[in-house]
Amino acid sequence: MPIKIDFKLAPPQLGPRIERLFALSAQKILSLEQTWKPAAGTPVFTVRGRYTSRGWTEWTQGFQYGSALLQFDAMGEERFLDLGRRGTLARMAPHVSHIGVHDHGFNNLSTYGNLLRLQREGKTPANADERNFCELALKVSGAVQAARWTRLADGTGFIHSFNGPHSLFVDTIRSCRSLAVAHQLGHVLMGEQDAKISLRQRLLEHARNTARYSVYYGEGRDAYDERGRTTHEAVFNPVSGVFRCPNSQQGYSAFSTWTRGQAWAICGFAELLEFFHQANARTGAGRQSGAADPRNTRSTFLRAATATADHYLDHCCADGIPMWDTGAPNLHRLPADYQYRPSDPYNAWEPVDSSAAAIAAQGLIRLGNYLHASGDRKDARRYRQAGLTIARTLFSEPYLSTNPRHQGLILHSIYHRPNGWDYIAPGQKVPNGESSMWGDYHARELALLILREARGEVYPTFFGGVA
User: Fold this and answer.
1) Beta bridge partners of 258
2) What pLDDT digit, counting tens, does each position of 146-165 carry?
3) Pairing mode, if any, of strands 233-237 and 242-247?
4) Distance (Å, rounded) from C-alpha 355 to C-alpha 385?
5) pTM
6) In angstroms, rounded to a whole number, what is the distance separating the alpha carbons of residues 344 and 433?
7) Any idea where the domains of the chain sit in the sequence?
8) Which residues fall within 8 angstroms of residue 79, CB to CB, at 6 or more apart?
9) In the chain, helix, strand, coil percent, each to 5?
10) Which of 207, 378, 417, 429 is deepest in the core (most CB within 10 A)?
11) Which tens digit of pLDDT belongs to each residue from 21-77?
């Protein structure tokens, strides 16, 4: 295994790094708030250290205001609560009813979801109007996301991506948390002839089909079947509902692994394991309407989570940072043992992706904690300590952005390498030194998770506002 896991690392040891991270984070959030012009669109990634927009889909604005809410959660500074609340009220309503994207969990759980969670946890005063407002937004968001549905030949289906009804993106496994929260709030999707469509059932079907078609298990599915690798996009015939082929929009190829997509799978499946464990414990396993066998659900999600986690840890560098794609075309030009060394974001051949590391690290910690609670102490320790090891790397130079003139928090994030969207600085051959809204947000979310544990506080979950 290339990653060199520190099995002695504990959350309190990361405390000083996290305190420093949030001190820098405060500067970055305020800088963006002071300079960003809403008419320019949504901030997406940095160019020469300044956040810019990039029209593709509107999936990052929730990270902008959600970051302020995470900052308040971690440090207790009221101005960040006000900033996050104002931004949510002023800018996020179109995202609640956006029928053209698969990103509701990213935008709306990061804003309305965090506001609701903070109130439920007692970190903000009880406010019935705000609670009802956020609950309504989350109900609508979950239903709108669930309506983006493609039915398959076996009668199940999936939430299709912005590419159209043929397209299942691995990314959506984390964004479909919106369905889980809306279901927990008692909501359903109303269809033709007043049909009541279960959001829980659609969540289950989408997640199972992601596990089936987006994740590989080394069982000879095709000539490139390798346990734990993922494909960014699974393509279906929308008329017959039959699977056709793997594909990739942001990775190098359909037959290599785009590591941020893999990270979404690690984190998404780990969170769904947490969610269904909590839901089954509270309501009684299998007694909900339309519920499937909870043991089968657990085994499907756990199989996907552990396969992707193992593959990530086997293919990242020694410090836990991955290259942007495991099959990137110039990897052979790197030193033969590059995976056994700390990552080099300034290498001349292929970029790393720190945002994939931030997402994966959170998933690994959640997966480890879930397994520990389930009695699997050996694997639990390996995943959890791997997540903490990656966090230590991210929360230090050369990944932590200490330059006050740079608006990003975590450096060396990659957006869309095939399209050439990432900035390449003079004197460099590949993108590096820049940040992204999702990378910065997930680094803050990761830091908050570890900080909460170090303080002995409530373990944060996406469903904490409704559980």
Assistant:
1) 325
2) 999 999 999 999 999 999 99
3) antiparallel
4) 19
5) 0.97
6) 12
7) 11-455
8) none
9) 50, 10, 40
10) 207
11) 999 999 999 999 999 999 999 999 999 999 999 878 889 999 999 999 999 999 999
